[in-house]
Amino acid sequence: MSTLKSLFSFKTLPHVIGEIPSPANKPQFNYETDDKKIIINTDSAKSKRIIGNIIIFVIIAFVGLIITAIDRQPVKTWIIPYLIIFVLIPFVFFMSYSILIYKQKKSIIILNREKGTVTIPCGIMRKAVEKPFEEAIVYVSSASGYGSLYLAIRFKGHGKGSMLSSWKNLSGEWALFLWYMDRNRPLPPGTAFDPYRKKDSARLREAGYPTPLYPMSPEVEERVREFYKAAVNADISPKKVPSEIPADPNEKKKWWQ
User: Fold this and answer.
1) pLDDT one-digit tens code per residue, 7-65
2) Is residue 86 part of a domain?
3) pLDDT of residue 100
4) What does each C-alpha distance from 36 to 184, 197, 209, 231 come to in angstroms?
């Protein structure tokens, strides 16, 4: 997630499909995926976290200079304490932490649709922890190094989690992942899932269309009706499943979008 504790941590997002999901269309949706798993490589966030360390160090040094030097003369009365407190100590801390980040083992998030679990690299050492998906805490957050809001995911009692996604439509991204993890529904919109739709549709038919695991708002149900019908019948109908659901021009965006 971030170099320090998140500067902002917002209300957790419910396990309810309350928005039209962002389509998992290639090449934008560049995760390794099939009808059983989505694998998200979080190593790309390392450089951002290291850059965040540098930014925070510069800010501390600059603010410390202003605080220490203001109305103080001569320079020799404050330069040594300033260098020790606001330069040397932060430098050692952030340098050590950056090295730790760089040496961390490869970390990935695994959304396992088949098992209904999610694996998250947790804590400073990024230890992989697997738990039922419903135990995952997902929220919109912001921190140094990322420069914008993003979806974060973690488990209670396992320290900091990881960045799940940083697309533009965060509520739509959460709806996509949540829909995907509901294996009692057909695969969500997106060309990334097209090679697996017939197989998944046949599986649902054989299972007798069990009750969905996660609720969907009535407004979304109405909007996705045509897509849902096509996706459910993908194994017996020649009709192409739409790659996305048209946006509602009158729909109000969330405050983080």
Assistant:
1) 344 578 999 999 999 999 988 888 899 999 999 987 655 666 678 778 888 999 999 88
2) yes
3) 74
4) 13, 12, 18, 16
35 neighbors 187 (Cβ within 8 angstroms): yes
**Residue 242 forms part of a structural domain:** no
CA distance 220 to 19: 6
- Cβ neighbours, 10 Å, residue 196: 16
| Whole-angstrom distance, CA of residue 124 vs CA of residue 106 | 13
Let me know whether 69 and 191 are in one domain: no
Residues 187, 224: contact at Cβ < 8 Å?
Answer: no
Question: pLDDT band at 248, cuts 50/70/90?
Answer: low
Say if residue 75 is in the same domain as residue 145.
no
Domain count, the chain: 2
> Is residue 34 in some structural domain?
yes
Same domain, 136 and 27: yes
Q: Which two tokens stand for residue 34?
A: 């099939």
List the beta bridge partners of residue 165: 151
Domain ranges, residue 51 = 47-103
Task: State pTM to two decimals.
Answer: 0.73
Same domain? 84 vs 142: no
Residue 225 Ramachandran class (φ > 0 left, ψ -120 to 50 alpha, else beta): alpha
- Report how far residue 223's alpha carbon sits from residue 231's, in angstroms, rounded to the nearest whole number: 14
Looking at the domain assignment, is residue 255 inside a domain? no
